[in-house]
Amino acid sequence: MSIxxxxxxxxxxxxxxxxxxxxxxxxxxxxxxxLAIGESEVEDVTGCFLLPGxxxxxTHLELNNGKGSMGTADNFxxxxxxxxxxxxxxxxxxxxxxxxxxxxxxxxxWDHLAEGNSSCDYTYHMSIIEWNPEIKAEIKAMIDAGxxxxxxxxxxxxxxxxDAEIFEAMQEIRTFGGMLGIHCxxxxxxxEMIAKFVAxxxxxxxxxxxxxxxxVEAEAxxxxxxxxxxxxxxxxxxxxxxxxxxxxxxxxxxxxxxxYVETCPQYLVLDEHLYDGPDFEGxxxxxxxxxxxxxxxxxxxxxxxxxxxxxxSTDHCSFNFEGQKTIGRTDFSKIPNGMPGVExxxxxxxTYGVAANKITLxxxxxxxxxxxxxxFALYPQKGVIQQGSDADIVVWDPEKSGVISAAxxxxxxxxxxxxxxxxxxxxxxVYLRGQKVAEEGQMINEKxxxxxFRTIGQNK
Length: 460
Ligand code: DUC
Ligand code: ZN
Ligand code: ZN
Prior knowledge:
By secondary structure, the chain is an alpha/beta fold. The chain is 29% helix and 22% strand. The protein has helices at 76-85, 103-114, 133-144, 163-176, 187-199, 214-231, 243-254, 265-269, 294-306, 345-354, 361-375; strands at residues 3-6, 9-11, 16-18, 20-24, 27-32, 41-44, 49-52, 54-59, 88-95, 121-127, 149-153, 179-183, 235-237, 259-263, 311-312, 393-403, 422-432, 435-439, 442-443. The strands form three sheets. Strands 8-9-10-11-12-13-14-15 form an eight-stranded parallel β-sheet. The two termini are 32 Å apart. The relative contact order is 0.17. Residues 183, 238-239 line the site of one zinc ion (ZN). InterPro entries: Amidohydro-rel (IPR006680), Hydantoinase/dihydroPyrase (IPR011778), Metal-dep_hydrolase_composite (IPR011059), Metal_Hydrolase (IPR032466), Metallo-dep_Hydrolases_sf (IPR050378). It comes from Candidatus Enterococcus dunnyi.
């Protein structure tokens, strides 16, 4: 039976309109003012906004961190439930091969993790952690398999490749019109500084951000953008966290380069003082790049407001405090890097952005959904409420308030960096391809997620 969402305000990245929306099967079939109820089942959404399902373009729902057998606290089953319950209907997860593995094997492994377990729709960025003729030949194979975006690393010894390899990969990706995102930090400098601090007995979480100062990120951003200029490839910068990196982006744009910039909620609402908390609490915030200064935070907000930052995703990568983060009690460099966040992004950005009058709701829709869909070849199947698009809809109640809490969260991890944060606005119900899957922040219909096949050129 079709469903009629009646009395709400439909929001896109450019405007808002009072429209009823009819869903049938998996798609939006009709939109208009005062639509007749007919045979439809009605959800009265008066007082609510209808937002296109949010897309998180940067998750590590399942990741082995390369330091022994440590896997993330969440997996596809738990992470996707936490995502969709609060409004994120699609994730682009980082498929990460192990050394020596083919991209095809990695894709099969990620399909195995997600298929039948995911409660939101999903696709992947394919990580390229080594470069050789076999991997090169697989770039086209990935695009043919619906994976149009790739990820590389300039830091992390088990993941990073050389500049020349990045350059070669860029040229191959450019041949097929794919999208590349890179983790920008100077890995050599990070290693130098970790060795120095550890040798000096400076081993508390306080030292984590000091091994990765803004220059470490900005240098890598500048170098990456110069390599991209040489390769003539539009590129994405993931989790950009500093003012100096944003300045490097401005320079690249001024010389005519197309650069996409992603930042994350943690860089907008948390800051570096948290590394100095008592009882090893600072370990909870160990992620890379690290949390930054209030000056960086202000520069990032300015970028979000002006539009020099394009998207906000989470870098969700959850490790428990007890038993995982605590492994680094006597050496911060052993603390697994990453924080949970796939569940909290919509409420945080609404609270600190929209309700705080920093950005409009239209801008939030762009940052969390529409512009991500356009960048990653998901649009107009995803990222917009219009006739013919997937019926991924968040019924957003701006009056709902709440408090983020580790005790009540759906993420399968023993803490949240936002514990006790008061929020304004929340998803009242969430539709995934026409099915109501969540209500009042809880799952009512799980494991309905599906792989989204992406095609180059769809992102217009
Ligand atoms: N940074 C993190 O903190 N965790 C996962 C990967 C990354 O780049
Ligand atoms: Zn990264
Ligand atoms: Zn990441």
